Recover the amino acids of this structure.
C-alpha cells in the first residue's frame, strides 16, 4: 500500500465547541446541508445504509449512498462508500469501498476535525486516479463547507 495514493487526509480547526461540530457532522440532516445531499428525515445508524439525492449543482441526478460503519459520540463518525461513483449507468456495488473517517478532538480554541479517506489502492485501476483526484479536491471544499456551516448555525 502506498499511503500517498491510498489515502486522503485533511484537517481543519473549527472555532466552535466539539458538541456543536459533532451535531453538524453526525446529524444526517445537518450533514446533508453542508455536504450537499438531501438527507431530510434520515439518520446515521452504525451498521445501516444511508442515502439521499445529491444537491450539488451538476450532480443532482446522482444518489449518495453510504454504509455507516462507526459512531462514537463527539469523537468519530465513519462510513464506507464508492468514491466518485458518478456514472448512473455503472453498477459500482461489486467494487471495494473506501473508508471515510471523521475524528474530532477538543482544543483550547475549539475543535480539530480530521478527515481520512482510505482504500483507494483497492479501487479498479481504470478509475483509481480520477476518483482520488476528484475526492481530494472535494474534501478541500467540504472542509470549508463544514466550517462555514458551523459558524452560521
Amino acid at each position: 500500500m502506498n499511503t500517498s495514493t491510498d489515502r486522503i487526509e485533511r484537517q481543519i480547526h473549527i472555532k466552535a465547541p466539539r458538541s456543536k461540530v459533532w451535531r453538524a457532522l453526525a446529524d444526517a440532516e445537518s450533514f446533508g446541508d453542508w455536504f450537499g445531499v438531501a438527507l431530510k428525515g434520515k439518520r446515521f445508524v452504525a451498521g445501516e445504509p444511508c442515502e439521499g439525492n445529491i444537491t450539488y449543482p451538476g450532480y443532482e441526478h446522482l444518489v449518495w449512498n453510504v454504509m455507516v460503519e462507526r459512531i462514537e459520540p463527539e469523537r468519530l463518525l465513519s462510513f464506507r462508500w464508492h468514491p466518485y461513483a458518478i456514472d448512473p449507468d455503472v453498477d459500482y456495488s461489486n467494487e471495494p469501498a473506501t473508508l471515510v473517517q471523521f475524528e474530532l478532538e477538543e482544543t483550547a480554541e475549539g475543535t480539530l476535525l480530521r478527515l481520512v479517506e482510505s482504500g483507494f489502492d483497492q479501487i479498479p485501476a481504470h478509475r483509481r486516479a480520477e476518483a482520488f483526484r476528484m475526492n481530494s479536491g472535494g474534501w478541500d471544499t467540504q472542509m470549508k463547507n463544514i466550517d462555514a456551516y458551523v459558524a452560521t448555525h
